[in-house]
From TrEMBL:
GO cellular component: membrane
Keyword terms: Membrane, Transmembrane, Transmembrane helix
Segments passing through the bilayer: 21-43, 63-85, 105-125, 131-151, 163-180, 277-297, 303-323, 349-369, 375-393
Transmembrane found in the keyword field: yes
Protein name: ABC transporter permease
Domain of life from the UniProt record: Bacteria
């Protein structure tokens, strides 16, 4: 079963690497670097402004650590057909699940390492301790996460639902107590308590000749993979996710404003796809909401302008595939509509969507900026929209058609 899991993992990683080529494209990496640099600069300035007696440093760190601990699910890589074909090997599935648990450690361990390193300056500022305590904190978080994944492994067996719920509650409460104990006393104390807790949950989650709950295990793995595919679907089409269409009758008034003329054929199709399609409509509203929340949370005009411009670009860039959304429909190929009208339709729709986003970001900026500064921000975003719609977008369309 060890070789079987390695084969499954290799196939899964190969598929993920294929999708990562589309996710980690040049534009997205550049945007992430820009955003990370801006946040790091903002965070550095914030640390310089905080006084050592700031009372909320340790509570903020403790709550963030406590919240990120449940992140990361057990990756079993099981498939629906396993319920029948692997049933004779059920007694050997314990080793298979243990390999899955070790495979599942990489992602949460990386997140905890990064978050712990990012928040360590707050702890040093509040307690005046050495940066060497970082290793104690990281090992503590890793031990607690190991206990969490051990409970998830135990949940794969039959007649464990109530016991799993009690263990999860006990784990969550004990994890919070250990985290805050290490922050308010000694870092090494939290590490020791986390080790004891991990060993305790390993002992409490012995399967004891239980049978696997195949249906539950397969459903949990499908749910885990679906979340991954939903994220990837923001960047490229994923066959594993079926596109859904929502009626959204309350938006029909917007579509009614498009006159029924030949040159508006693709404008109507693009607008309907953007408003009713779960992919593009959901993508637009999610980025719009996240961008608005970030603008509301920032106080520096430079960061507000940078984040607003960044999200205008992200919205526009992620909506570009709408251009080829209807190419699979034979009728769209037979329409007597010139290609220039198709390109112009996407430009008009993109301009309207980005204009509405720019207006919302400018209104959100009024919370911290003056009216004149918000008007300046709106003007800056309009310039960006013009450059994007009339220079960048035609170049991308030409590249797609070549």
């Amino acid at each position: 079963m060890l070789d079987f899991f390695l084969l499954r993992r290799q196939r899964h990683q190969k598929k993920m690497m294929k999708y990562m080529r589309y996710v980690l494209n040049d534009h997205f990496v550049l945007v992430c670097l820009f955003l990370a640099g801006g946040l790091a600069f903002y965070y550095s300035n914030l640390l310089n402004q905080l006084s050592p007696d700031f009372p909320w440093s340790l509570p903020i760190v403790g709550i963030i650590w406590w919240v990120i601990l449940p992140l990361g699910k057990l990756a079993t890589l099981v498939e629906p057909a396993d319920m029948a074909f692997l049933l004779p090997k059920e007694k050997e599935m314990g080793g298979y699940l243990s390999r899955g648990l070790r495979h599942s450690l990489a992602w949460p361990f990386s997140i905890e390492l990064f978050v712990c390193g990012a928040l360590l300056p707050l702890i040093v500022l509040a307690k005046q301790i050495s940066f060497m305590n970082f290793f104690f904190f990281v090992v503590m978080l890793w031990s607690l996460k190991l206990a969490n994944l051990r409970i998830q492994r135990f949940a794969c067996y039959q007649t464990t639902q109530k016991q799993t719920q009690r263990l999860m509650i006990l784990w969550f409460i004990s994890s919070g107590g250990i985290i805050f104990s290490s922050l308010y006393s000694f870092a090494w104390l939290g590490t020791i308590l986390a080790f004891v807790t991990a060993f305790g949950f390993v002992f409490l989650t012995q399967e004891q000749e239980r049978l696997l709950d195949w249906s539950k295990m397969i459903d949990q793995e499908n749910t885990r993979l679906h979340r991954i595919y939903q994220f990837i679907n923001l960047f490229t089409d994923v066959p594993e996710i079926e596109a859904k269409v929502h009626r959204r009758k309350y938006l029909d008034g917007l579509l009614a404003k498009i006159s029924f003329r030949q040159e508006n054929t693709f404008l109507y199709l693009f607008a309907r796809g953007a408003l009713r399609g779960a992919v593009f409509g959901g993508l637009f509203f999610r980025l719009l909401i996240v961008g608005a929340i970030l603008v509301l949370s920032l106080t520096d005009s430079r960061f507000i302008a940078g984040v607003s411009a960044l999200f205008i670009y992200l919205i526009g860039f992620q909506m570009i595939p709408l251009y080829s959304q209807f190419d699979y429909i034979g009728a769209a190929q037979l329409y007597p509509v010139l290609k220039k009208y198709k390109k112009a339709a996407l430009q008009r729709l993109m301009t309207l969507l980005l204009f509405s986003a720019a207006l919302i970001f400018s209104l959100c900026s009024l919370l911290h900026l003056s009216i004149f500064e918000s008007l300046g921000l709106f003007g800056l975003l309009l310039v960006e929209i013009g450059l994007f719609a009339w220079f960048y977008l035609p170049a991308r369309i030409k590249k797609m058609e070549d």
